[in-house]
Amino acid sequence: MTATAALLAFTLAAAILTITPGMDSALVLRTAAVEGGRRAFMAGLGVAAGCLAWGAIAAFGLGSLLLVSTLAYDTLRICAALYLFYLGVKLLWGSLKGGKSAAGGPQAARPPAAASAGGWFIRGCLTNILNPKVGIFYITFLPQFIPSGADVLRFSLLLAAIHALLGVAWFALLVAATRPLARWLSRPAVMRGLDRMTGAVFIAFGLKLALEKR
């Protein structure tokens, strides 16, 4: 397989994986709907940064530790599950507080669990970098698209960069898709519903990760 063929094949495979519904898309959609496009896009950039980090880890061979060490894998898995639980509970709790304040008026219009743009970048990055399944994906998936004779380190980083750029493009599309509905999505009742739904998704993903047997 030539380098060009490998790049085209990887780009197609990565594009399909990128648009597949998952936790990252849920995070960006919720943030776009409740807290605005800028924060949502920063969350998407954080997810992309997590992809680049895992790509670098895999390229330098450090990610193979997850394949051979059950302790390393389980430690990262539990950390990821706890972090997802934290995000999910925070969203659910914020939506309940928002509901209680609805009778009071102005406070209900404030989006629960709000964070700065930088804060959402960190959240997006952590949801990705703490997930050992993403690491295993990079360790096992990237080598299939590295042609014979290519510089493994550079080509792995190039593939990771392609995946990250595809993610950024997809998240930008998701953010743009919410803009026509911005007025409706900004209603307190709708925001609380989105937070409850997204919080439940995060808790479900965290529970699945915590109970997963390797």
Describe the structure.
With 214 residues, the protein is mainly alpha-helical. It has one domain (24-211). 78% of the residues lie in helices and 0% in strands. It is built from 10 helices and no strands. Helix 3 (37-59) runs parallel beside helix 6 (117-129). It starts with a helix and ends with a helix. It comes from Achromobacter agilis.
What topology emerges from the helices and strands here?
Elements: H1 3-19, H2 23-35, H3 37-59, H4 64-68, H5 70-100, H6 117-129, H7 132-141, H8 152-178, H9 182-185, H10 188-211
Helix pairs in contact: 1-8, 2-3, 2-6, 2-8, 2-10, 3-6, 3-7, 3-8, 5-10
Which labels suit this protein?
transmembrane, 10 helices, 0% strand, cell membrane, transmembrane helix, amino acid transmembrane transporter activity, mainly alpha, 214 residues
What distance separates the N and C termini?
A: 32 Å
Main sheet summary? none
As a percent range, the share of helical residues equals over 70%
- Overall 3D form: globular
Q: List low-pLDDT spans.
A: 101-113
Task: Summarize this structure briefly.
The chain has 214 residues and is mainly α. 78% of the residues lie in helices and 0% in strands.
